[in-house]
Specification:
Elements: H1 2-17, E1 23-25, H2 37-47, E2 56-57, E3 66-69, H3 73-83, H4 89-102
Antiparallel strand pairs: 1-3, 2-3
């Protein structure tokens, strides 16, 4: 049940932050980062500004290190609100990617 609340907490945090920047990245207070991590991530995202991407992953640990473009947050949050009781948020993100990007039934 704690994951249900955690999913909702993430949604409310993303909605709050959406208007405050161009990108949103999920970090936790107990991560250990390398020097200049922020500028490295920011520069990488800026290099991809003209590309069509939905999620950039800077960590393999669950939801940590996932970056979104602010306009995409609405879709992501709406999806999570629909299924927040069903799966942890990182599994829901995998499902969003499958539906929106990698679905083999979609036209190439």
């Amino acid at each position: 049940r704690w994951r249900t609340k955690q999913n909702l907490d993430y949604c409310f945090l993303m909605m709050y932050a959406q208007k405050k920047g161009v990108y949103y990245i999920q970090l936790e207070d107990d991560i250990v980062v390398k020097q200049n991590y922020f500028s490295t991530i920011k520069n990488f995202a800026l290099q991809l500004a003209s590309e069509d991407w939905m999620i950039l992953e800077f960590s393999q640990l669950g939801f940590i290190g996932k970056m979104f473009q602010s306009p995409d947050i609405t879709l992501i949050v709406e999806f999570i609100f629909m299924f927040y009781k069903e799966k942890p948020i990182d599994w829901l993100l995998d499902h969003i990617l499958w539906v929106k990007v990698c679905n083999p039934e979609k036209d190439a």
